[in-house]
Amino acid sequence: MDGSLRPPLPIRIAFWLNSTIVALSVLVWIELLFAWIAVLWSIRESRFFGTPERPRVYIGFQFFGKPVDKRQYLEAGLLPDGFVEWTSLLTVRISVLFLGLVALGVLVLVKMRAGRNWARVVLVVLTAFGAIGSVVILLAASSGWVTLAGPAQWLLTVFALIVCLSTAVLLWLPVSAAFFQTAQRCRD
């Protein structure tokens, strides 16, 4: 494609909005990864559930809105042998998958900005899934099925929903469609 073909403003806005979502996703992944590593380390060192010498302050999670103490699982033998090793391996596999998806997302964004129509279609499909996921999270949180960690998580979920919806609109505006058609003609 000719390097002089500059994407119109809606394409540039969609590119940067989705780049922001990718960057925020990476930051959230890093935060979750470090939190999970800390939990696994604590379980491995038997500090997560407390010791007789140093009982822990309640650390639990919620299951359908009811607090559950993890110590009961340890005492009942419900944490199987190799749990830490298995979950560590699972964490690594999920991390590799996530980083692969981020790389794929960046590739789609770059190709969309370069005027590839297939990238526009892929991005709209991905943003449709993102919008559906955001709506499901917001509905589940408002009904009490899940708990969002404060106002920041609510705002990020609403921001993701707005970005998904605006991307779908921006990529199909007439000026955007003309850009993709011009880019196709330049490549032919």
From TrEMBL:
In terms of superkingdom, the source organism counts as Bacteria
For this UniProt entry, which segments traverse the membrane? 21-43, 90-110, 122-148, 154-180
Q: Which UniProt keywords apply?
A: Membrane, Transmembrane, Transmembrane helix
Q: What is this protein called?
A: Uncharacterized protein
Species for this entry? Kibdelosporangium banguiense
